[in-house]
Write a sequence for this structure.
């Protein structure tokens, strides 16, 4: 996805130091992911990670990752992370990253699960606008801060899987 000011592409190993730096900046109170965690996520064959940039080859200003688990006809997707640098919030980067992950789920007809801090109304509103509903709460989910998280789910889109075969169209 591209516009004159926004590019969503694949996150790659060269982006890991920037992502780890952004993690420290944004999630200092809740165990930010180190570079080794990003490397492990990129190595997992069932994960897909995206980068938001202002231009091709530019620095990462946001990132997001989703897992696809299961088998044809019963896939599920889980959003692992979505983050946008504070300096780039409010410009549509989070929405674009979310849409890229939802496209992954739609391609295999999967419902999507995620956790979000109960005090993050901006993210909760974004998810609700894209079909997510609250399905539960996880007390003390984020550590070490002890912040609670809502579990949210977006059902699979019906048109993504052919009823006859249970496989991708």
């Amino acid at each position: 996805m591209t516009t004159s000011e926004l590019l969503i592409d694949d996150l790659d190993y060269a982006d890991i130091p920037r992502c780890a730096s952004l993690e420290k900046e944004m999630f200092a109170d809740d165990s930010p992911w180190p570079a080794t965690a990003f490397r492990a996520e990129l190595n997992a064959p069932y994960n897909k990670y995206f980068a938001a940039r202002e231009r091709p080859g530019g620095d990462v200003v946001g990132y997001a990752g989703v897992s696809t688990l299961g088998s044809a006809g019963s896939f599920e997707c889980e959003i692992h992370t979505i983050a946008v640098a504070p300096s780039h919030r409010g410009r549509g980067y989070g929405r674009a990253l979310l849409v890229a992950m939802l496209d992954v789920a739609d391609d295999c007809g999967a419902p999507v699960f995620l956790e979000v801090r109960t005090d993050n109304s901006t993210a909760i509103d974004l998810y609700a606008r894209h079909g997510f509903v609250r399905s539960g709460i996880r007390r003390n989910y984020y550590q070490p801060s002890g912040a609670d998280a809502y579990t949210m789910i977006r059902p699979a889109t019906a048109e993504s899987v052919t009823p006859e075969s249970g496989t991708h169209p």
Notes: Residues 7-115 form a domain with the Aminopeptidase fold (CATH 3.40.630.30).
